[in-house]
Amino acid sequence: MTTFIQLIVDGLAQGSIYAALALAIVLVNQATGLLNFSQGAMAVISAFVALTVTTALAPALGTTMAIIVAIIVAILFSFVLGGAVERLVMRRFEGGDQDTAVVATIGMLTLITGVVGVIWGYNYQQFPWFFPIAQSFMVGGIGISLWSLTTFLAIVVIMILLQLVFAKTKLGLGLRAVADNPNSAALSGLKVGRLLVVGWGLAAVLGSVAGILIAPKLQLTPTMLDSALVYALAAVVVGGLDSPIGAAIAAWGIAIVENLSAFYLPFVGNDLKVAVPFVLLVIVLVIRPQGLFGRKAVVRV
Amino acid sequence: MLLELSHITAAYGPVQVLEDVSLAVPDGGAVGILGANGAGKTTTLRAISGTVRVPNGTIVFDGQDIRGRRPEQVAALGIAHVPEGRGTLANLSVRDNLLVGAYLRKDRKQIEQDIDFLLDLFPNLRNRYKSNGSALSGGEQQMMAVCRAFMSKPRLLVLDEPSLGLAPSTAKDVYAAIRRLRLESGIAMLVVEQNANLAFSIVDEAVVLETGRSVLRGTTAELKGNDEIRKAYLGG
Q1: Nearest to B103 among A181, A190, A295 (CB)
Q2: Residues of A in contact with B96 (CB under 8 A)
Q3: Which top CATH class is B3-89+153-233?
Q4: Pick from B70, B71, B92: which is nearest to A177 by CB?
Q5: Low-confidence stretches of chain A (pLDDT beneath 50)
Q6: What's the complex ipTM?
Q7: Contact B100 A174 (CB under 8 A)
Q8: Which pTM value belongs to this model?
Q9: Measured between CB atoms, does A192 come within 8 Å of chain B?
Q10: In this structure, what DSSP letter does residue A86 have?
Q11: Structural domain boundaries in chain B
């Protein structure tokens, strides 16, 4: 029983990484109707910015203050980055085929990864954190990592905030309307261009928060989030493209099932456990194509 | 005059669609635009709301020339355009569709009252209030589109063929509802319609377009008495 619970706790920790990225993907989809494959790469570049700022400021401010400042800088940077990507790149595909725009985001994934590699190199770099990453405590025989717990809680807060923003605020309404039908939204006086920039900016902020939360655990490299992106996409499809809570829950669920099956199903083991999310994905798509929590069919990619 | 178009032209790329269109909508009045397919009815409306470029002529709304303004600017001035195909926000609930209509307004209490007013006028929508736009029937979507436009508290409601794609009886229902809305609110309307009988049920006067030109205008009674109009648009 202890092992079982430990596996679930570890799954929640692992799933938080996927969930963070999944939330950013849902945000862009809610705000623009697109899937952004460069979401992870944009998050990584922000994490590198945060690393550079931390390294530069740590001697003067101490590590804790330096990390706080670095997070703020990275958030501002990523908002500008996200907005700029919309204005300078995605705007050119507006009104065209959505598939073309999605392919453009794949191109940006390659571009950003390359640029980050040129600037910061491909070696693993340790991202400093407020406390030692290995720090953990025991509750009833189950080891809980402090990093996992705080990351999990941060994701829960972000998920709820995001759900509230979309469901209850005017900005959320505007973003959803523009994603749904930009021409029709403009006829109601919505400033479509500005809302798209804000939507991409906010998604990039969310992504950068994800990147920074994850970086201390995974070590920072240009391709840090590439595999997480695959899981996050699986989570988004399983949970529903239009449901932040659904996507986050699916991310945790996928990680837990992955962990449990690796341990309890001998033929899966550690080697095959990467296949588990995709088996889940196929099952869900067959049974409920709009995702477990989604309201519409996934038609865009 | 609330809205006055004088000798406007418009083109999609090299294809000239409007050659010379003039029309006027008085404050609180309702004007129809009649004409065959391809006469430029929809383009005339799109010229007003800024979704097509207008190289020549003037479009004066409430004393200022609005030619060349962007759609969201025109909307902010008080012209609410219900586009051809209704512009339904398919993944938003009926309530959210109406709230998008009220996006530029800040008077929250009044917004709720206006929604209530519209739901009384359009009881079908009250039953579907929480459903997604895509779940509504064509007639319901058309009514929702009209309500959404009305939610912006416009001075002028621009309707592009509200009967399009609807069964005749549903089209009649939609027009009856629009008529009630006009009587209750006194809002000015500019209505494109192929079916002149339907248009005449709500407008006071109409303009006839032929291949991008406004060729005739008159009151409803005058047009009904015109032999050519009767033959072309009223089924003999």
Answers
A1: A190
A2: 173, 176-177
A3: alpha beta
A4: B92
A5: 297-301
A6: 0.88
A7: yes
A8: 0.84
A9: yes
A10: I
A11: 3-89+153-233
